[in-house]
Amino acid sequence: MIVLIPAYEPTEKMLKLVAQLKEKTDYKILIVDDGSGDSFSQLFNKAEEDGCIVLHHPVNKGKGAALKTGFSYIHSNCEPDKVVCADSDGQHHVNDIIKLADAIDSNKPEMVLGVRQFEGDVPFKSRFGNSISAFTFKMATGIVLNDTQTGLRGYPYELLPWLCSVQGERFEYEQNLLLKSKKSGISIKQLPIATIYDNNNKGTHFRPINDSISVLLPILKFCSSSILSFCIDFVLLLAFNKLLGGLFFCIVFARVISSTFNYIVNKVFVFDAKDTSTKQSAPKYFGLALAILSLNYCMMKLFIEVIHMHIIPAKILTEITLFTISYTVQKLFIFKKDNDIKLTPS
């Protein structure tokens, strides 16, 4: 078993974790210093004296980059073994690390998450950050995870090449792993762990605003694309109606142009799927657009005429539901990237 600890400007808590692991286990410990600087060299030197392998980034690159440095080193220099990732800030109890390590199945493409319960006195920025990323993950995949930002995660050795291939350099990397897992044939197991926050969790380097935006950015871009396409559709409808007349044809012409614009923007900017074949993605996209249009009519008719809902809440509920469906289908099926690694159970 190998414990991988990414560390940026750590405290004595990192050495305490190392001591507890040495006392209770025979796990190998790999620490990646993510550009902490000379003032922290004494801590890393002490960790080396205690038997840890320590790798150094010359400058701070982010947690995702540090994890990938560790995964790459393990894959190239260590005997095949299971890997547990733990944070350096004292949030993970050594007994939970051991419990998670025991739950890893070396013969199964599965990641194991140590899921915090978020009960009691939990700092606001921790609750806020996890709520944002959990919402994003559910929107993108339809899967409910209680803790998408946990740093306590376990992987079998066979997943290391995939772990190194996933994009992301900072906190968004761990979210990307979850988003990519289903499409890559990797299952997720959740284990409850203790929630430990010492001194209001001041040891964490998670930035509530910047890092939450980076995690939420795909949905923000999708919202912007949808709003801009709606504006184009609305303006063109008015213009065609004034110039040509005939409401039906004006609606069709405006919708064709705005949908084409939306397709291009989503492919190039929202989902970064420039390499995805247009011949394959375009028919799927416009098929989805027709399906969404039909569903819009059917849902509105159901809410208003059958359930007798007022038109305003009916419209809001319909649009939220169809927005979620559209985003999920486009991300997972229409604009999925061709370079994802697909793993199959051994």
UniProtKB/TrEMBL annotation:
GO MF, one term, reads: transferase activity
Q: Name one GO biological process term.
A: polysaccharide biosynthetic process
Q: How does it sit in the membrane?
A: Multi-pass membrane protein
Q: Cross-referenced SUPFAM superfamilies, in alphabetical order?
A: Nucleotide-diphospho-sugar transferases
Query: Which ranges carry the GtrA/DPMS transmembrane domain?
Result: 221-335
UniProt KW keywords: Membrane, Transferase, Transmembrane, Transmembrane helix
Instruction: Please give the GO cellular component terms listed in this UniProt entry.
Output: membrane
> Is Cell membrane among the key words of this record?
no
Annotated membrane-spanning segments are 215-240, 247-265, 285-304
Q: Name one Pfam family in it.
A: GtrA_DPMS_TM
Task: Tell me where in or outside the cell this protein is found.
Answer: Membrane
Domain named Glycosyltransferase 2-like: which ranges? Answer: 3-130
| PANTHER family cross-referenced by the UniProt entry | SLR5056 PROTEIN, UNDECAPRENYL-PHOSPHATE 4-DEOXY-4-FORMAMIDO-L-ARABINOSE TRANSFERASE-RELATED
Query: Would you tell me the protein name for this molecule?
Result: Glycosyl transferase family 2
